[in-house]
Amino acid sequence: MGRQRLGVNIDHVATVRNARGSSYPDPLRAALLAERAGADGITAHLREDRRHIADGDIDALMRELNLPLNLELAATAEMQAIALRHRPHAVCIVPERREEITTEAGLDVVGHKDRLAEFIKPLTDAGSRVSLFVGADLQQIRCSAEIGAAVVELHTGSYCDAHFEGRGGDRDRELERLCEAACLAASLGLEVHAGHGLTYGTVAPIAVIPEIVELNIGHFLVGEAIFLGLEQAISRMRHLMDEARSETAG
């Protein structure tokens, strides 16, 4: 298996900044530290309510960042216009509800097939790789391929929740579903990413799925940075991913 990419989500650096309405800590500084620690890309979710990442953060990341930027956003006209103005390396479309604490589930691609197909075409034409954030649902993955997405990112939240709640049977079933979904997506020509809720304790079984070429991890790493420092927290995650892949290959 090849080296798996690590995308570091810097949203919650902005959450800490916004708690005091200050100018620090700076998400751009976090992104530059992540690069030094071994990250392969940076993810930032520009929410409609701007609860963490702000428009100015995207401006700064596009201007200063050396790594590819993966811009997460909802499928709205405002967000499409922002993405078309910046033309980041990747655009990941996610479901979004104002009242949710974090992204709770994958997109319903099947139920919004025509609208999503229309939404992603200008982004693809502008040169961004479009990713759809979906659950481990085979019908959603087939539909993602049909409407022209380049990438699917598999929602790992249910797997992580089952692990931490001690529901071993559910955890194993969710892992099996993720493996099956990744295999199907790759067979359809989609690049496969995964993320949501991953920690040091849950990353290895996801890292060894051969079809998954990138993991996007944020909240846990920002939390660990309080105790270890951001570079060390990211470096340890990088090590665990590489270790899992090498042991499987061996």
Molecular structure report:
- By secondary structure, the protein is of the alpha/beta class.
- The chain has 11 helices and 8 strands.
- It has helices spanning 11-20, 27-37, 55-64, 77-86, 113-125, 138-146, 157-164, 168-187, 203-207, 219-228, 230-249; strands at 5-9, 41-45, 69-73, 90-93, 129-134, 151-155, 191-195, 212-217.
- An 8-stranded parallel beta barrel has the order 1-2-3-4-5-6-7-8, surrounded by 7 helices.
- Helix 7 runs antiparallel to helix 8 (168-187) and helix 10 (219-228) packs across helix 11.
- It starts with a strand and ends with a helix.
Q: How many domains in all?
A: 1
CATH evolutionary superfamily: Aldolase class I
User: Which parts are unreliable, with pLDDT below 50 for 5 consecutive residues or more?
Assistant: none
Structural class: alpha/beta
Contiguous helical run count = 11
- Give the helices and strands as they follow along the chain: EHHEHEHEHEHEHHEHEHH
Radius of gyration: 17 Å
Distance between the amino and carboxyl termini: 10 Å
Annotation, overall tally of beta strands: 8
Mean pLDDT: 95
Sheet with most strands: strand arrangement: 1-2-3-4-5-6-7-8
- The top-level CATH class is Alpha Beta
Q: What shape does the CA trace take? A: globular
Per DSSP, what share of the residues sits in E-state strands of 2 or more residues? 15-25%
